[in-house]
What does this fold into?
Amino acid sequence: MTPPSSKSARRPRRPRPADLKPHEVELAQFFVRMAGILGVPRSVAEIYALLYGSSQPLDFDRIQARLGMSKGSVSQGLRFLRDHGMILSVRAAGSRRERWQPTPSLATSLVNLLRSQVLPALEQSTPALRRVLEAATADGASPEVLDRLGRLNRWNGRALELAPLLLPPPEA
Amino acid sequence: MTPPSSKSARRPRRPRPADLKPHEVELAQFFVRMAGILGVPRSVAEIYALLYGSSQPLDFDRIQARLGMSKGSVSQGLRFLRDHGMILSVRAAGSRRERWQPTPSLATSLVNLLRSQVLPALEQSTPALRRVLEAATADGASPEVLDRLGRLNRWNGRALELAPLLLPPPEA
DNA sequence: GTCATACTTCAGATTTTTTTGAACAATGAC
DNA sequence: GTCATTGTTCAAAAAAATCTGAAGTATGAC
It folds into this structure.
């Protein structure tokens, strides 16, 4: 039965030795499921979920302790979330320690995430798709195939034009 | 440097012993990249790309031969594409052999794919998210957290309402 | 300037996904 | 009805993604 793919049909997972309340676990499961669709790893989703459900900003050590996760994973997870504009840090005076919280708009965070995944793929594709169309033309491909490939090229171009409008680029 | 995630930073791949023209390879790479974003396996994307660039419908054996892929992968890949309404088969009279071609609308195919991934996740989440909000309320979470969780619940509900409108369900 | 703190790095271990192929099942041409 | 053809299944192998933790680096409190 198991289809060859799609994150849908996943095996049960080894539970992490986390120290979470039941509703924190459910929130984490929600974010893990959604993150899976975009190929974001479990550990990253768990960190985000923990921060999302927390009334206070949390520091590195507390995140590690509550999720029962290695330092490496916490470090990389926080970096990913930070780089995608999904979390912010605050620092208490007289301490080097950073404390993290989710950025106010989850919607913006999601769009950032999508952009960062889709845009590079589209950019890489532009010249390749043009070459494919040219080669197929030279090859005497059927009108139907040429039509398909033409549409693909136009889609790619339009998607690239639209992308910057969807939301202001990384800065700004 | 390698981020903890995102399909972006992938290692080089073992080339498949395929027998494709250069432009067919580039088309396959495009579909593989895009499929990767949605977690669709390489083999499935390669099959789709081959059909997409082909002037004639192709049969099982020809797909296997051109892509240098196992029977199992071809079978599972075709099943996935068929189940998601992305390919159609035609049969020549007097032969059991099916020959495959992409469905006319790639856009529709993509929406089908997205639906099949996102909808089940949303449905599973509805009761869980409600429980999370209730538990947090009982727990005396901060107004800010309650606000976040409330928004999450509303998003989920709206997404579920919208989904059926996006495109007619599997049948119809 | 010193150095303990706070994180980062990355090679290897682990987990999960994907692919393979040999055994098996279904079907329609005859 | 028979059986070669066509495709499926699934356990095991291979590949890929993710996680770990010990060693290393950077920084700001003092």
